[in-house]
Amino acid sequence: MSPSELEAFLTHGIPLTRALGVDVEHVSTHHLRIRAPLAPNLNHHGSAFGGSLATLGIVTGWSLLHNALTDAAIAADVVVRKVELDYQRPVLATLVADARVDDAALQAFLSLARARQKARLTLEVAVSEHGCDAAALHVRAHYVALPPPEKTAPQREP
Questions:
Q1: CA dist list (Å): 92 to 50, 119, 129, 143
Q2: Secondary-structure percent of the chain, ordered helix, strand, coil, rounded to 5
Q3: What is the secondary structure of 137-155 as a DSSP string?
Q4: Listing from the earlier edge strand, what are the strands of the sheet with 137-146?
Q5: CA–CA separation, 41 and 47 (whole Å)
Q6: Rounded distance, CA 78 to CA 120, Å?
Q7: Do the beta carbons of residue 33 and residue 6 sit within 8 Å?
Q8: How far is CA 4 from the centre of its chain?
Q9: pLDDT tens string 108-153
Q10: How confident is the model at residue 156 (pLDDT cuts 50, 70, 90)?
């Protein structure tokens, strides 16, 4: 998927991402970067709302795995199982979330998903502010790819 295709998918399929103002900056099999402007994500302190930071981090990890499954032509539904958040500092500029996955972990995940088994993967996502290398939030999210439900043939009436 291209950045614009993924962004369109997110803003249509997950309306909250439209409210956050997501901008998919980079997408590849092993790395995804999403930005969001500060203005729609402000809190009453004039910094980014913690819920916006958390959501951006979770969505970035989810999107990395969704993209990898799509590129591998594997039908599976990615869900979030558990999330751990570690806030380090306020964000006072554009929000930036980076998710990365190493090849061995990704290939194991894709192999299980391809076999229509429950595939699990934990990702570390760093959320920072534009221009700052230090993460403001560390997101540790546990994702699961589930095989889609089996489609049954429609019942014929006698």
A1: 12, 37, 7, 29
A2: 35, 30, 35
A3: EEEEEEEEEEPPPPPPPPP
A4: 23-27, 31-36, 95-100, 119-129, 137-146, 77-87
A5: 8
A6: 9
A7: no
A8: 15
A9: 999 999 999 999 999 999 999 997 888 999 999 999 999 887 765 5
A10: low
pLDDT tens digits, 93-106: 999 999 999 999 99
Cβ atoms within 10 A of the Cβ of 80, count?
A: 13
Burial classification of residue 126, based on how many CB atoms lie within 10 Å of its CB (0-12 exposed, 13-18 middle, 19 or more buried) = buried
What does the mean pLDDT of the chain come to? 93
β-bridge partners, 77: 146
What are the tokens at 40?
Answer: 């729609």
The owner of tokens 């996502």 is 125
Alpha helices in 14-148 (DSSP H): 15-20, 50-71, 103-114
Give the CA dihedral 136, 20, 56, 92, nearest 10 degrees. -10
The single residue listed with the structure tokens 């995804």 is: 32
- Tell the residue number behind the tokens 């009453």, with chain if given: 44
Q: Which pLDDT score, from 0 to 100, does residue 149 have?
A: 79
